[in-house]
Amino acid sequence: MTDDGRTEYGGEEQHAQHAREDRQRDRTQRERGPEPPPRSAPEPDSPPRSGPEPEPESTPEPEPRPEPVGRTLAVPDLSLVVLVGATGSGKSTFAARHFRPTEVLSSDFCRGLVSDDENDQSASGDAFEVLHFIAAKRLAAGRLTVVDATNVQSEARAQLVRLAREHDVLPVAIVLDVPEQVCAARNAARADRAGLPRRVIQRHQRELRRSLRHLEREGFRKVHVLRGPEEVESAEVVTERRFNDLRHRTGPFDIIGDIHGCRSELETLLGRLGYALVRDGHGRAVDAVHPEGRTAVFVGDLVDRGPDSPGVLRLVMGMVGAGHALCVPGNHENKLGRYLKGRKVQPTHGLAETVEQLEKEDPAFRTEVGEFIRGLVSHYVLDGGSLVVCHAGLPEKYHGRTSGRVRSFALYGDTTGETDEFGLPVRYPWAEDYRGRAAVVYGHTPTPRASWLNNTLCLDTGCVFGGAMTALRWPERELVDVPAERVWYEPAKPLATKAPGGADGRPLDLNDVAGRRIVETRYMGRLAVREENAAAALEVMSRFAIDPRLLPYLPPTMAPCATSAEDGYLEHPAEAFAGYRADGVREVVCEEKHMGSRAVVLVCRDETVAEAFPHCPEGSGGTPTGVPKGVQGALYTRTGRPFFDDPETTGRILRRIRDCVEEAGLWAELETDWLLLDAELMPWSLKATGLLRKQYAAVGAASGAAFPGVLGALEAAAARGVEVSALLARQRDRAVDAAAFTQAYRRYCWRVGAEPAQAAGLPDRDGAGLPDADAAEVPGTTHAPAPDTGNAASGQASASAPDAGEAPQKGRTGVPDGIRLAPFQILAVRGRSLAGLPHTDQLALIDRIVAAEAVVTAREDGAAADGTPQRPGLLAATRRIIVDTEDESSVAAGTAWWLRLTADGGEGMVVKPVQALIRQGDGRLVQPGVKCRGREYLRIIYGPEYTRPENLARLRIRHLGHKRSLALREYALGLEALDRLADGEPLWRVHEAVFAVLALESEPVDPRL
What is the pTM of this model? Predict the structure, then answer.
């Protein structure tokens, strides 16, 4: 079997035209869909043909020499096998014996599909359209396909060879040359073929005889001819692995970029990688062995331009021959190979230097070099299919395929057909569009640094031009390089500032998110996103979201606990504890639920880290992701929108958190230079001003205006002796409920940018009726009761909402006064997702960050005599209590804690399993958390009078199934995004899951849940 036909191309000019035609073909096929083969008049058991029946040839052509009986027929594991033989030759029996039923496409069966009669020759045209369509789908999916038809006509075979070429697989012909008498007897024994004219078999035999000598010329890469029933019966079909299929080789590997004759740098790099060089009697390196059994993989361009191409070849050939290395060809090896075969080539681009160096070697070595180059395979698929190594890059549709087109792309990459000002071909940015699962590691195009782009990596860092020689350790994904000893060859143009497509290319594409999507997750399998929901998410992402390169995660929604039957309550801790107990979760943590807006915070150690987030190769310099300079991280809402329009405000908050993380020592402890935090930003009014003014404040203002007059009139009527006591009592109750409603939402609103004295807790007396500025501040002690959140100034509470739209005023510390941030989880750090860390450990890390702020604030703002800072800080701790769901006393303590928390004005609590990522006995995920909201807080959600018995009875009929399903799906997608981020997957893969979370938010669900 050959590697892809060993098709050779003269250079990049010929390949450019080939690539343009390929792209045009792909575009046309996407627009028009699969093109059916041409139809013509039907013929028995063969593709339709037209024209008169050909006459027998006067002088038959010589036939191939008979092959021995009982031989093995080798068939590539991915190929199009075409059975050729007259009707009755036994093709269907042969196919059933040697191939799976799903691998065989029978023309008879397809004829039956379209006409309900396998012998209806008038349906042959439609039948072969169906057969070719199914064959194309199987080949596109990488499946071995066998065509069971007569295929004795060259036109029929030409369509199949063309189909194989379109899908870059090898066409294989298996000919069943059985005597006419045997075919006639077999057809006579079949009831549905008994009346078949003898002339049909004779015609098939004549066409078969004419075809035998020309099958390889038609394009078949393997031709097996079986003569007579005995040879057909005794033959054995064996599938063989393609030369480029090394999925069973799992490494570990050291993939080395372009060398170009720089032998000394190669030896140095191998030494850094841990290889021990083996030298011959002349001191020349002829092999290199790694003590841990690692395998080197060379991406080609071993020769030309550099000082010692023969030395590089001698070392690489020795390593490959000893099984210590693999090598794929580069375009320079391809050109050298043609020269060594005597072809006429231009001695340009360094070939003249290589030829001069080889002339000093003995002829045996030059012969060995030629054989080595001829034996190189265009690309390798390694490590279970997760790694592809080639010279110039390879789209996913070509991975593991074998054709001249694949070899051409692997050697030259893709070009636009244009040349730049230096006369060099302009590269088509194929890596920008790459969306494959396998990592593609390649070289060919010099770049000053190696950087990942869409799961592709160019390792050509221009050693021969004075750059460096770079290697990738796999699966560690660690880059190792050595600098060039000197500039060995002056480049035609300066090293490119980016790999093909560039690190600053378009990492995201509309096709990644548009339409109906299926996202594979590790926690809930395949999750679907509806097309209409994707459209809604696209609107938000494209118009309102922050820079997508700083948006690696969106938090999931959270389901409430089961509806309570307790008198006066819609939600109660008893249901939360009982639900987890039923799921087999014994230990839960109850966390205070801060009333604010959900926030995700990306905190980077410095601006350089933010500019390169999430991947910052050591010593890379620049901004690999193209994030603008000066950005320090991100602070955004649960829909990806920035919290503050003013970048300075965001920057001050991020700097404060960064300093606290530094003071807590977490940068070093977690071995990271960035943190991704899940948090709550307060006050609620900071982002909910519009909702407060239009919905809640309007209700409060209306009740404040209406009830005093109503009560006054009713009280006057009662004083006159009118019987209105029942109505008066009801209206008084409604007035109390309305006042409670107003007070409920006002607890979570305060003015941002107040004077320092107000920020310290004094009431605001500007007439707005605002609560204390520190209403949401909580101490860091565990199990402590919530502090009094403070009421408004004495007197009738105003229903007006705060004016949170004013620009925040800066305190002396630089952080806007009145803003509080309560982080409660560290989601991820560089190279790791921390979503599986127990919540108690998470909160312990958060406590250290919060506690460190006192030191940071004192250092920045000065301290009082007792050493405490003069103003409240930015960060707020999250109080919690651990509950054993199987211990009644522990459950009672948790319930009492919640009652105290909500009685003091707290929103409620979130109940989570202490251990994250809990699964039920059947493998399904347990809810990661349920919210249990307080009685007064729910007044905001369900209205002022929701606690009345008749209203509670109605509200208790609420359906939580959809909300719980939505919460779990978004949770699984969030985990998937974090895992992909930690694994270093390309941004489009991370955003696939992030975008799906936002899309699911468009699903219709009761917003009160």
Answer: 0.72
